Amino acid sequence: MAVVKPDSGVREALEDRDPNSLNQHVQIVWDDIIGEPEGARSPECAWRVSNVCFKHARNWCYTVLAVLIAPPCALLLGCGFACLAFEQIWCTAPCLRCVKIYFASLRTMVQSCMAATVVPTAEAVGHVCRHIRVNFRRDAADERDMLVV
After folding, report:
1. Residue 100: helix, strand or coil by DSSP?
2. Alpha carbon distance 34, 28 (integer Å)
């Protein structure tokens, strides 16, 4: 009888179930949740029993929830993300592309109008304002500021 070895890529995928570190904020290890300061210590046997109870309850409850609820959740999430992808691919992206095409000529017209009217006006105002100097002195009286043109 031949022994079939599992593919190493599959084994790696099963070992690292969070390769993109999506759930680093979920700390469910005893040392990350429970810590007794120096002044408040429970007996060693209570600490160890509590630790064991925590680990077994966490593992048992998570396993039951994962077996019972994870497959329906995965089904719903898969359908939800499929709908989201469909909407983005077939509705939103083509609609945005149409808007870009339709408004390209309007953009060119607005740029031409701005270049013909607003730019010369702004340059003229800038030329006039370029020579304005404002001098603020601390030793001057509070009721008047000096404006030197």
Report:
1. helix
2. 10
Total count of domains within the chain: 1
* 76-87 as b/e: b if 16+ CB within 10 A: eeeeeeeeeeee
Contacts of 133 (CB under 8 A, 6+ apart): 148, 149
What's the pTM?
Answer: 0.52
H/E stretch holding 130 reads: none
H or E element that contains 116 = helix 93-129
CA distance 42 to 58: 21
* Nearest Cα to Cα of residue 59 among 21, 29, 26, 23: 29
Amino acid identity, position 43: P
Q: Is residue 92 in a domain?
A: yes
Quick check: is 6 in a domain?
no
Q: What is the pLDDT of residues 68-110, one digit of tens each?
A: 999 999 999 999 999 999 999 999 999 999 999 999 999 999 9
| Domain housing 94 | 41-117
Residues 32-72 have pLDDT tens digits of 888 888 888 888 899 899 999 999 999 999 999 999 999 99
